[in-house]
Amino acid sequence: MGLKDGISPSSEALDAASRWEATEVDLNTVSYNGEKAAENLRDEAAEMYDSAHQLYNDQFEEELVIRPLHSGDIYSSFQFRTRWDTDFFQKGKKVTDYRLFPKSLGQVITKFSVRELHISFTQGFWRTMQWGQPFLSAPPGAELWVWFQDTVPDVDGAWKELTNVLSGIFCASLNFIDSTNTVQPSASFKPLGVGNVTNHKFLRYAVLPREIVCTENLTPWKKLLPCGSKAGLAVLLKSEKLFHSSFHSQAVHIRPVCQDWQCTSTAWELRQTLSVVFDLYTSGQSRREWSLFKMFSRTLTEACPLASSSKIYVDVTDNSQGELFEQSPASPILSQAVVLGDRRTYSVYDLLTPDTFGTPRSLNIQLRWKTSDAAAGLRPLLHGERYVAGYGLQTGEIHTLIYNNHPYRAFPILLLDSVPWYLRLYVHTLAVTSKNRENKPSYIHYQPSKDRLRPHLLEMLIQLPPNSVTEVTVQFERALLKWTEYTPDPNHGFYVGSSVISGLVPSIVAMGTNSTQEGPLFSSFFPCKEESTYFVRVYTEPLLVTLPTPDFSMPYNVICLTCTVVAVGYGSLYNLLTRTFQVEEPSPSLAKRLANVIRRIRGVPLL
Amino acid sequence: MAAPLTLVLIVAVTIRAVLFNSSLAELISERVEVVSPLNAWKRVVEGLALLDLGVSPYSGDVFHETPLIIYLFHFVIDYADIVFMIADGITAVALYLAVQDYNKGVFRKQKYALEADRYPHDCLELIRTPKEMYYIPLKVALFYLLNPFTILSCVAKSTCGLNNAVIALFILSTIKGSALLSAIFLALATYQSIYPLTLCVPALLFLLQRLYIPVNVRRPSFWLFTMQYAFMFLGSLSVIVCLSFFLLSSWDFIPSVYGFILSVPDLTPNIGLFWYFFAEMFEHFRLFFICVFQINVFFYTIPLSIKLKEHPVFLIFMQIAIISIFKSYPTVGDIALYMAFLPLWSHLYRFLRNIFLVSCVLLACSALFPVLWHLWIYAGSANSNFYYAITLLFNVGQILLVSDYFYAYLRREHHLTHGLYLKRRDGSEATLVLK
């Protein structure tokens, strides 16, 4: 069993206490009088919640995972999950009664017959080599991929409308998604929820690598939460702190999931995730310590009253004996979870238990390091890098390096590259080499670009030999565009979205394969089919490529000059075509002509 | 005469073989002056690679060759160097034979005219002698094979060389008087790049002249032969197009090849007038100017054929030159073809007005193309206007060259009927002007 986290707090506490004797658990702590009333209110709310849950079949869970990274940074990952046991596509019945599930998204699902929707907004780049693997990766900028129901007749039309609607919902430039940056990956993006439609005709994928993520995207995202940013973990999400970070990524994932382990009926799951990496090491006066207050300039006072579970996990795997850092308040519960192929230990703060907040009713988790030197972390097993080689503005070469850091196991990965049409890829120059030998991809799906219509799509299945670097190179030619097609600052260059590397990476410990089993949210996103492998998606850096530019200041001059040259051609040929050769008779000079005029008046013979 | 031609061929092949095996070959094949999106070898290889991947080469916007080219190189991809050298050889030999035959005809006509005493008596200077005409075919072959433009085009494996070979074979079969072969090769050339369509008028005029059928719309024999030729041309064109359809069983190649030539979506710089003009064009005028520029190529056919209806071979030269100046994706290979005809008009030399200036402009521009390209693309110290300026000048040079030859041709014809030393009414020496 990979997941040992219980459902109800009391049983979990007891369970944990029996396993971890060192931890002091006192469930009988006396509550103060002042808190009694609040307690009663909370109980009432919980009762109401239970009855409502019976009625509406929906539940809301929130959690925050805090992981100290080996580089000294702090990775905080929020996950909010709303699950609703309903069917949006029931015949003859429209879903009108929304409780926890945001109505705006529910309507989008119904209107556009969406089966799965994944959208992420990311500012900054996740440094896999320093920070390890994130729970949910996302490329810089905005990423959107949607599976439509197989009943949708015009997928492109629905996609166009959907992006415009989402653009409004999230205050983002998703309306810039059009056919020139949309692709239909054939293998890299499989549905994550239940269902058996795998025809990639109904899949659309687009990345906007230049999208800037800021407060205006965070506010609508927070509004989708049942408690908004008024209560629960979302209180911590203050934009002035969140955007003062090394990495910020927020996402919304909607998918159908099984209601129970038999999977007789489906439920809709909405996961809102937000990951942020703070560099407290350098901003904290060279002392390595952090607290919720330092990170978010807020402390927690209560869980969201609508939440059925509200927990904070702090990764203490490296600190099993308390030798690295000191944690306060000490957590009563420890939990283990297998995540990303590794068994991690977390200390858990359950916000639904009033004791967690302590006496001033404020939870401010603090970690204070005893030593200042950072431990060397494990290298992530799968890692990707990308860069543009070559000089000049005529041609270039895209190099993608894929690292397999596993000492003895080879595993296959899917590489997806979506390159805009103005970098004309030459697929005959595609070369895949591992350990200085050609590594022929066992599957290549290539869709060439159409000028101003669609991008290149290159998907490959590559077997990565153990402990190796695989290099994928492909040459391209830079196109000269029409002057109106350049971005406002053309010499800055054009962004090319990240490559997507999806792989089943060998796991060190057995993975849980039961997706319906309750576990921490962060460990249960990607469905796991086998115990020995786990699914990872890695995004490489986006590329910035400069293109040759025309002179934007002189369209009139160019039109005039070129037309002049054409006119010179026309004129000289016209001249020769219409005129004939004649002997030139000298015309009399001006003085002579004047004299003749006078002579004519005088009636004298002309000269 | 065969021995010098063989020698020229051997020299030409040696130069090409040396360049193919040097490191310059790769550099040359990337030059925008030598290859265009339409005929770059890299794109042919890409098309074949796409075919190997099971993707239609026309589904993307990289490959714009015709299906017959794919089919050809599907088999001879490994011997591409040899194919391009052979194509150049065929062009040179075809031009050699065609010019030889044409000169014989010219000489015969001149002899009849002399016997009939049709030339004014002071025109003896203009009469062409067998001695000067003897080396013209060889010079034409030499001009084609050893022209640096042809060599560059061949080393870059630009499929322009193949189109030139087809056009040369068309000229040869026309001059030899074979209407069927002429129509077939013309259909093939048209199929490859549309523009040679305008050559059907001079071919028809030449064949009519050869059969002593006067160009007269009231004569049924004129119409009969015109219909025959049009039928042969259209028939072979439709056979070739249908064959292409059966090769790939799709019509995708029509928009991808002809749509691409006519609508100019790829603005990669070249030596022509289109790329920068349409990069800087206002969007709502684009269609209008594309029509204007494309009509420009076809537009001169009718007035030129009226003016030059007695001289169809010169009309072929004029048409090829106009195509290579005003086509949408010109390369130096196209220029090389009409430049090969220049020795044929060496007797016009005394009437050329600004040949020195034009040759200087063309030479200077050819040298400046790579320099300004380097400054713009690699050094970053110049911008696109520099390269654009040189393309403008190069095209002005070409236009002046062509119109100068046209002027000289017309003037010589005028002198042949009116005498060389014209006098004014008052007896003083006269100057000729166009009025």
UniProtKB/TrEMBL annotation, chain A:
InterPro entries: PIG-T. Pfam families: Gpi16. One of its GO terms (cellular component) is GPI-anchor transamidase complex. It comes from the Eukaryota. GO terms for biological process: attachment of GPI anchor to protein. This is GPI transamidase component PIG-T.
Automatic annotation (TrEMBL), chain B:
InterPro entries: PIG-U. It is a multi-pass membrane protein. The chain crosses the membrane at residues 68-99, 166-188, 194-213, 225-251, 257-278, 285-302, 314-342, 354-379, 385-407. Pfam families: PIG-U (PF06728). Keywords: Endoplasmic reticulum, GPI-anchor biosynthesis, Membrane, Signal, Transmembrane, Transmembrane helix. It is found in: Endoplasmic reticulum membrane. Pathway: Glycolipid biosynthesis; glycosylphosphatidylinositol-anchor biosynthesis. Residues 1-25 form the signal peptide. One of its GO terms (biological process) is GPI anchor biosynthetic process. GO terms for cellular component: GPI-anchor transamidase complex. Belongs to the PIGU family. This is Phosphatidylinositol glycan anchor biosynthesis class U protein. It comes from Conger conger. The lineage of its organism: Eukaryota, Metazoa, Chordata, Craniata, Vertebrata.
